[in-house]
Amino acid sequence: MASQVKIQYIEPVIREKKEYDPFIEATLQYERAASFLDLEPWIYQRLKYPEREIIVHLAVNLDDGRAETFTGFRVQHSSVRGPCKGGIRYSPDASLSECKALATWMTWKCAVLDLPYGGGKGAVICDPLQMSENELKNLTKSYTLAIRDVIGPYKDIPAPDMFTNAQTMAWIADAYSQGTGYLEPAVVTGKPINLGGSLGRTAATGTGLFIVLNEASKFLDFPLADKQVVILGFGNVGSSIAKLVHQAGCKITAVTDMFGGIYNAQGIDPFELEKQVQNSGSVVDFPDTIPIDNESLIKLPADILIPAAVEGQIHKNNAPDIKAKIVLEGANGPTTLEADEILKEKGALVIPDILANSGGVAISYLEWVQDLQRYFLSEREIHARTKRTMKKAFWDVIEIMNKQSVSMRDAAYILGVGRVAGSLRALGRHL
Ligand code: NAD
């Protein structure tokens, strides 16, 4: 039977953000670390750029009978220490530059935790909030088939990121496994439990943030009880850390998301807020709060600021007004280099993304190991191992920070880039 679908071809647009370029930021951070490490020229060059950047165009059937072409990316920054590892993001603002930056940051993040991975990242330019579940499934399967040859349990292992979740990972596992003839759960992490997902993975990044925050509170002698916390972004990462700091006795005074924000000086209950977000899709109009925007949230007199949305939100124009003593980077790349300098001068402790939000990949690693062995650990074992790994990474970074009198970000980069450089040096791979 002839297809009834009316094909409408829409020219794909590869957007690049003009005013803020995440890959330039990531490259400048790398160059700074390279200068501390005095890298050999061949190692410096080899790690400066991603190994591979793929652009795919996906023709996807929509529910109304039209078809649309979506543009997707997969970037593999480094496979020096093992398979590439990194999330997949669905967003109208996704870009190749963003994927390159996120893949690069993943390489350093995995090395800070001493995991046997390099960094990867993928994205599809789309508006997931305007798409049905069926359309998202078609898009995901089409994207998976387009990148199928370069992903796999020993090549590159995707995971959820903004606007993708366990269901997305299940669709990827299915599309990938159609070519293997058997279910290959280890091709993705962050899957549903009944497909080889790991206990603790959904809230993993929040769990990791909290482990690191606890260590920071000991380091600074800054008990968490009664501290005021503001959180920019209330998705997977923002909501999970919100619940943990609330349980630790902190007061969450403001939260924003992509639709707006809420403020209550007396505190916001994240468990109730999560229920609202599950129903309405946004934090906006939460009872007993007044509206607030991102810029005002960032400048509030809070003790702890947690960016948990997109890149570049703490910049040179708002950094001078930040009052928080701790900036806990839940998001990837939330602070520009210029803002970093300002915060350093103000004496704030910025716990950098490549350490702070590494709980996601820490538990993803355990999921991958479990999948490869088809042998599963208890939630208790997973938490204990994650805690051990992240606490060690935190104090490794602090040791470098103290010894070399550098910022915590510089220390994390010295550790991460230094480890990857060391592996590359041992391989002697000049090509
Ligand atoms: P998510 O899609 O679950 O949630 C994103 C949240 O950010 C939503 O509340 C959304 O409304 C909000 N948001 C988007 N744009 C915004 C804007 N301009 N202003 C205010 N809020 C905005 O995504 P997530 O998984 O929670 O990821 C958030 C950040 O954490 C991203 O930077 C991601 O790369 C990073 N991260 C995620 C994981 C993970 O395991 N999910 C791991 C490490 C790092």
Q: What secondary-structure arrangement, pairings included, does this model have?
A:
Blueprint: H1 22-37, H2 41-48, E1 52-61, E2 67-76, E3 84-91, H3 96-112, E4 118-125, H4 133-147, E5 156-160, H5 166-177, H6 204-220, E6 228-232, H7 236-247, E7 251-257, E8 260-263, H8 270-280, E9 290-291, H9 294-299, E10 304-307, E11 326-328, H10 337-346, E12 349-351, H11 353-356, H12 359-373, H13 379-404, H14 408-427
Parallel strand pairs: 3-4, 3-5, 6-7, 6-10, 10-11, 11-12
Antiparallel strand pairs: 1-2, 2-4, 7-8, 8-9
Helix pairs in contact: 1-3, 1-14, 3-14, 4-5, 6-7, 6-12, 6-13, 12-13, 13-14
This protein binds nicotinamide-adenine-dinucleotide.
Concise summary:
44% of the residues lie in helices and 16% in strands.
